[in-house]
What does this fold into?
Amino acid sequence: QVQLVESGGGSVQSGGSLRLACAVTGFPYSDYCMGWFRQAPGKEREGVAFINRASTTNYADSVKGRFTISQDKTKTTVTPTLQMNSLKPEDTAMYYCAASDIKAVCSSSVQKISQPAFRFWGQGTQVTVSS
It folds into this structure.
């Protein structure tokens, strides 16, 4: 059974930093695209940052230069981690970790990334940035 368990998140002032982690276990596929989506109140869910097995990364334009996605891998667990710096109030949202067994998804424009391609999702973690 695939499980995604998120940690991190919280509240911070504008300009601050937060780190999100997502422990992915039971993922049986050799290739993958994993990363983060976010959804602010009243807005559609959008892609933020993604990483594939080869550690190739892809970012939404709105977070380039401020957010960094990386990953740790063990025999049983892949942990994509999102380091968020220079946070802005507009980064306030519920952040969701997601995993896809379709490697090519990671090559898409993040603004147009296919959400249905991500079959596995975390429960979400709130990030609140105050001005």
